[in-house]
């Protein structure tokens, strides 16, 4: 069933308050096999799920292909609460496009300017996020903002791109923008090379933000765990990803226990697919039917996502999600 991300994240927040927390993975989707892998994992574990679409994914799949693939998955798995979310929207235009396409949730990432590269200032972030929230809420769509910029905690904090979130500033940000969910910077970063040494997560920032903002859904970006066995598989079959390193699953479990509700995962899906395809083609050099190796990729994706649904505690939680679609939320925001 198509729901807003607010419905799914509210279930997560209520469970946290009741002392039985679970986090919800938000998995990036770009094509049919990824969508099938994600929905299969959700069905086999009875998990609610957020599928998220980046601007790059929209471009790759010309919007329509992707939207219809996601729609097919929702129709074929009516028992699973699914939210369709825009990942890292960078301005009003792409947000409007996503909402026109039927997305039930959008992220506006105002921590960077519209070019997606230049760090913005706080006032710019507040203003663009506030405008998006107003527009989206009028249509029942959930909104995620971001405060702080992602990077490695071991980088030169404050001097470069990395800017860990200040929990007190987060309170002001949420009050002034009206966002439902807030992405906080806690030392993670996007991609397969997150840490040079030991992984380090700023758990104290999660705890303090959760304490100051008890009703805001908290989001951790850059949360792929970059499983060493997938990296090893890729390297064994001709890849070159020696220094890849992610956020271990037990650190993510700790983050959920401290108050993270949404956990963004893209890289792990890519690694699972690439490892499976490399292995399959190396072992079956005579094979030339793409269905053969894409099937292997799809199965590897489903297995990897199932692992996360179990680790984050999402498994079995589908019945806890309230049936809040766009119409219900439009009425609720209107009050
Ligand atoms: O944050 C993400 C998408 O918004 C994905 O992060 P990863 O690169 O760690 O998968
Ligand atoms: O946050 C970034 C996501 O991993 C999406 O990446 P992408 O822009 O390459 O699709
Ligand atoms: Zn950002
Ligand atoms: Zn992200």
TrEMBL record:
It comes from the Bacteria. It is an enzyme of class 4 (lyase). Zn(2+) 2 binds at residues 109, 146. Its cofactor is Zn(2+). Dihydroxyacetone phosphate binds at residues 191, 222-224, 264-267. It catalyses: beta-D-fructose 1,6-bisphosphate = D-glyceraldehyde 3-phosphate + dihydroxyacetone phosphate. Zn(2+) 1 binds at residues 88, 190, 221. One of its GO terms (biological process) is glycolytic process. Catalyzes the aldol condensation of dihydroxyacetone phosphate (DHAP or glycerone-phosphate) with glyceraldehyde 3-phosphate (G3P) to form fructose 1,6-bisphosphate (FBP) in gluconeogenesis and the reverse reaction in glycolysis. This is Fructose-bisphosphate aldolase. It comes from Limnochorda pilosa.
